């Protein structure tokens, strides 16, 4: 048994000495004792775990020179193989060879199982590596897909940007082309207009030339006709000259004889009278005294009439500065004026009952209320014999300052007189006298007088102005003298468009200042309705009277179609900046447009057309005024 164990140990040593790795069909032949090829180089990027940094740093040992002929050029030593063969021979000659081979078989099976387990473990590792590789491939494919999607979106955005730029370029090209076309059309229209104007000018020149030639022909014809007629008349005159001469001679001789006889008779009578007067002294005295008395009477009558008339005109007549007044020019002309004033008062009372207390005057409610308060206070002042308050009305032209002064005088029960500041300057040195006559005349009113001076800045401006004459300064001083104290007979109302130009002394005499602004939209609407009724609805209304019905033709009335308050409100909105006077002129223009139409009908289209034209005209006047300023 000991021998068998020794034999087994011998074979195991042999097997361990001759142990070679298993060779597989899918790999290269790797049998170290008989391998003539060099070992494969390691793949890049994979480091061998068995090698240390020290072994990598050491240089490879020098190759041993083969001095024994029994070895190969690759360094193979067959000595181990020989020992193996020798050991096999000893085993085959031994009695325990079978047991040795069985032991070797078991060892080989054990190694095969270990190899199978390692193969399974390798396959598991290989499967895990494959799984990792698939995962890495999936991740790479996913990243690649994301990159491709991002690239596609970038490409889409880029293509969209290119398309947008291309569209912008095309639009810019079309716009440029359209501008060029419009410019070409404008140039063509300008050329056509120039050609048309040139043609019209040529036609007009030809017409003028034709008219000149026609006039020349007519003048020549008239000249020839006049010459012929003159020759005919000369011939006729020459033929009748002798007859006329004879007739004139006979008539002249007859007239001469008649006048000679009359003169002789007259001188005979005068001579007889003079002889009688000269021979009789009493007759001579009576004749001389009669002639002298007749001449003195004529002269005295003429001069006395002048003196009496000037005195009556100064005492009773209206001053020349007054343009308009409710007081008659002479006392005997006051009854008719009072009667007409009463009639106007009754008509205005009816107007007040209708809701418009100022008749044709449409003002802002606040301003209208203030004027009513001033009218009431002025009436109470007159009844209590208190001094009146002077007023200043200022604002743009045509805002109703004069009409408001009339209504203020009427409502307060005062007489009314109107003068303009522009009438004072032409009077020259007589202006002072006329101012005093005006105030003397105003004090004679029993009811009190509202003296309204329109365009007051014409002669009441600052006295230090260089262009103001000495006569104007004297007139201003005269007015300041007459208005120095508060009066119980006269209410002084001034109206101006430029209140800043008034003299400081005039401003000191003003107690109430009222601004008349341009009418607002509501006031313009009321003014449009007022003047629509005055110029359109009541147009052609005949005043009552027998002769007017008999001898005047029946006027054509204006027909109004579909002209509602909404259209009037639209017109009121368009006429922003219009004064009351401009609105009155606008409605007068509407009336003229209606009379100029065929059917005498006012419809919304015609009304809007006139409104638009007047608005453009108002803007043009405004621009011209701004340029002149």
Q: Could you walk me through the main structural features you see in this protein, from its secondary elements to its overall organization?
A:
The chain has 629 residues and is mostly helical. The chain contains 16 helices and eight strands. It has helices at 2-17, 53-57, 79-93, 97-279, 281-315, 334-354, 365-383, 401-412, 431-442, 470-482, 504-508, 521-537, 546-551, 565-574, 580-596, 604-628; strands spanning 324-325, 391-394, 415-420, 449-454, 490-496, 512-515, 559-560, 601-602. A six-stranded mixed β-sheet has the order 1-3-4-5-2-6, with helices on one face. A two-stranded parallel sheet has the order 7-8. Helix 9 packs parallel to helix 10. Residues 1-6, 17-58 and 332-356 have low confidence and may be disordered.
Number of separate strands: 8
N/C terminus separation: 150 Å
**Which H/E pattern describes the elements?**
HHHHHEHHEHEHEHEHEHHEHHEH
Q: What proportion of the residues is helical, as a percent range?
A: 55-70%
The main β sheet shows up as: 6 strands, mixed
Q: Give the class from helix and strand content and strand pairing.
A: mainly alpha
Strand content of the residues, in percent? 5-15%
Radius of gyration: 69 Å
- Number of helical elements: 16
Low-confidence stretches: 1-6, 17-58, 332-356
Strand arrangement across the biggest beta sheet: 1-3-4-5-2-6
Taken from the alpha-carbon principal axes, the silhouette is: elongated
- Average pLDDT confidence is 79
């Amino acid at each position: 048994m000991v021998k068998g164990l020794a034999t087994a140990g011998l074979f195991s040593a042999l097997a361990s000495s001759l142990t070679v790795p298993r060779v597989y069909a899918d790999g290269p032949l790797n049998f170290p004792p008989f391998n003539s090829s060099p070992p494969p180089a390691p793949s890049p990027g994979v480091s061998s775990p068995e090698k240390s940094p020290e072994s990598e740093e050491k240089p490879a040992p020098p190759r041993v020179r083969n001095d024994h002929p029994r070895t190969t050029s690759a360094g193979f030593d067959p000595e181990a193989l020989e020992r193996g063969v020798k050991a096999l021979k000893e085993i085959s000659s031994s009695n325990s060879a079978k047991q040795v081979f069985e032991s070797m078989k078991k060892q080989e099976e054990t190694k095969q199982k270990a190899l199978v387990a390692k193969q399974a473990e390798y396959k598991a590792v290989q499967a895990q590596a494959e799984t990792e590789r698939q995962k890495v491939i999936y991740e790479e494919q996913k990243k690649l897909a994301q990159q491709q999607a991002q690239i596609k979106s970038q490409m889409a955005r880029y293509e969209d940007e290119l398309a947008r730029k291309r569209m912008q370029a095309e639009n810019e090209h079309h716009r440029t082309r359209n501008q060029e076309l419009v410019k070409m059309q404008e140039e063509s229209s300008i050329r056509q207009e120039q050609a048309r104007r040139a043609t019209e000018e040529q036609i007009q020149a030809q017409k003028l030339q034709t008219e000149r030639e026609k006039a020349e022909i007519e003048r020549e014809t008239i000249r020839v006709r006049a010459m012929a007629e003159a020759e005919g008349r000369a011939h006729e005159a020459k033929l009748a000259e002798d007859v006329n001469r004879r007739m004139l001679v006979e008539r002249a001789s007859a007239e001469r004889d008649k006048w000679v006889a009359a003169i002789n008779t007259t001188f005979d009578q005068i001579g007889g009278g003079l002889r009688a007067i000269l021979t009789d002294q009493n007759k001579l005295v009576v004749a001389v005294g009669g002639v002298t008395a007749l001449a003195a009477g004529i002269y005295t009558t003429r001069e006395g009439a002048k003196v009496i008339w000037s005195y009556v005109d100064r005492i009773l007549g209206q001053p020349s500065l007054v343009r308009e007044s409710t007081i008659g020019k002479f006392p005997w002309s006051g009854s008719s004026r009072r009667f007409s004033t009463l009639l106007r008062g009754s008509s205005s009372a009816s107007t007040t009952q209708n809701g418009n207390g100022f008749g044709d005057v449409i003002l802002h409610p606040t301003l209208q209320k203030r004027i009513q308060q001033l009218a009431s206070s002025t009436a109470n002042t007159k009844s209590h014999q208190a001094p009146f308050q002077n007023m200043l009305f200022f604002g743009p032209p045509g805002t109703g300052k004069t009409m408001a002064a009339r209504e203020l005088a009427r409502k307060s029960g005062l007489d009314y007189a109107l003068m303009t500041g522009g009438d004072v300057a032409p009077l020259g040195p007589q202006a002072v006298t006329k101012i005093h006559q005006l105030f003397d005349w105003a004090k004679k009113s029993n009811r009190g007088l509202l003296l309204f001076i329109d365009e007051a800045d014409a002669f009441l401006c600052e006295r230090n102005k260089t262009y103001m004459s000495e006569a104007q300064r004297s007139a201003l001083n005269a007015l300041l003298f007459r208005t120095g104290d508060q009066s119980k007979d006269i209410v002084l109302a001034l109206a101006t468009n430029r209140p800043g130009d008034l003299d400081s002394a005039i401003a000191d005499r003003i107690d109430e200042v009222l601004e008349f602004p341009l009418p607002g939209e509501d006031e313009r609407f009321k003014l449009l309705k007022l003047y629509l009724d005055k110029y359109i609805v009541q147009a052609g209304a005949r005043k009552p009277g027998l002769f007017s019905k008999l001898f005047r033709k029946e006027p054509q009335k204006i027909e109004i179609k579909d002209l509602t308050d909404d259209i009037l409100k639209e017109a009121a909105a368009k006429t922003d900046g219009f004064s009351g006077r401009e609105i009155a002129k606008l409605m007068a223009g509407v009336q003229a447009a209606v009379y100029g139409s065929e059917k005498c009908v006012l419809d919304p289209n015609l009304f809007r057309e006139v409104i638009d034209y007047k608005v453009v005209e108002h803007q043009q006047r405004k621009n011209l005024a701004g340029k002149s300023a």
